[in-house]
Structures are given as structure tokens and as C-alpha cells.
Amino acid sequence: MKEGEPKRAVRWAAVIGGILIAAAIIALYTPWVRIFDLREIVVSGNHYTSAAEIRDATGIQDGVNIVRASLRQARTSLLHLPWVMDASLRRVLPHTIAIRVRERKPIAFVLDSHSERLMILGEDGVIVGYTKDEGADYVRVRGVSLSRTASGRQTVSEDVMRTLNYLRDRGLGRDIFPSIDFSDPAAITMHTADDGEVLLGPLSETKDRIDELVALLDTIDLAAYKTIDLRFGGEARLVPRKVVNR
Questions:
Q1: What is the CATH number of the domain that holds 171?
Q2: Which helix H or strand E contains 110, and what residues bound it?
Q3: 97 is in which domain, residue-wise?
Q4: pLDDT per residue as tens digits for the range 42-74
Q5: How far apart are CA 124 and CA 107, in angstroms?
Q6: Which letter does DSSP use for residue 104 in this model?
């Protein structure tokens, strides 16, 4: 490399940098110059929320200068969408804003005690909407109290979510226990597909009771019992189904 080449490269870098800085200043303070006008918003990561709904929620209008657009404010607006758990936005010069969202995963249906409609429960305890799809492969949850966050979201308690997530982690899904009732906090009850029931005991102790249930199911035929009572910890009380003699 010749001796003057590094200096020449530095000069060119300074010139290009100066041009970019000047263009940014012009774009910021002379909005009528359409250097960085928004022409496209690209959305990715969405499944339950439409791209159009996400674009609308940002409040960013076509033609706005993307250097001046508030991505922080747009992200805050996106986090108010029920399915959206997280979102990131970035400018792709000269004319694009890219949005990537992370949506909540549905894990259960909650029966609305007032309307009898099914509400969709997200993985973090947020109610994300309503459904008429009775056939979806999610456990039905009854007897939970809903609270509202400052943003107006409806949520279920952390204790309920810990129980539901732990059931899922231990492989006790809707195929085995299609519904679970939290109406009595002292005796959380799971129902089997053939009208049997498992009494887990207090909500605060469900993790230990679920572990006991998993171990018990390795030794018994669940369908042979009408009731399995685990409320007493370490001592399961089993009520067999009545056998009809022919």
C-alpha cells in the first residue's frame, strides 16, 4: 500500500460521514425535503395480530420523516395490543421502519362467569380475547378471579398461572385433564375426560400435589377411579368407580 493511501481513505471516510450527517440534519429540520420519508412498515413475528393492525397501532403515518418518528412511543402503543408481549422497532434507511413483535402464546381457556363465553388466556396470565372455538386443544379453567392492570388488561393471579404452567411442564394436558376448577382455593379440582376428578388441595401447595399425581399415575389406571384425593399430602385417597355386574 502506498504511503498516501491511508490518508486518502481517511479523507474519503470524513467526506462520506459529513454527507450523512448533513443529510440527517436536513431531514430533521427541513421536513419538506423527502430524503427519509416513510414508504413502508415491515412487520414480522406476528401470528394472531394482523400486520395492518400493528401498523395502525404505531400511529406512524405514511410519508412521515422516519428520523423524526418516535419509535419509543410507537412501541408503547404496540404493547397495548392484547396479543403483543414485546416489540422492537428500527429504522431501515432511507424509507422503511421494521417492526418485530413477540406475541403471547395461548395456554388455556377461561370461562367468563358473567357471559359464559370462553376467554383466551396467554402464557403470562393476560386475557387476550374471546373465542367460540370449543375444539381447540387447551384446558378449560373455571372459578378464577380476574383483576385489571393500570393499562386495563384483565389478568389471572400468579398462583393460578404457576399451577397451569406446572401442569403443562409435567405433561398433564387437556387430553388427560380437560378442565380445572379454582373456585375453592382450598381444594383445586381437576376433571378427567370421563367425569372423574382429582382434588389437589390448596392453591399454594399444588406443585407438590402435581408431583405426587404424576408419580401415582405411573402405578394406577386413572380411568378406574372416580375420585383421587391428594389434599392430605403424601396419602392419596382413591375412590374406585362402581362396577356394574351383568
A1: 3.40.50.11690
A2: strand 106-111
A3: 35-103
A4: 999 999 999 999 999 999 998 899 999 999 999
A5: 9
A6: P
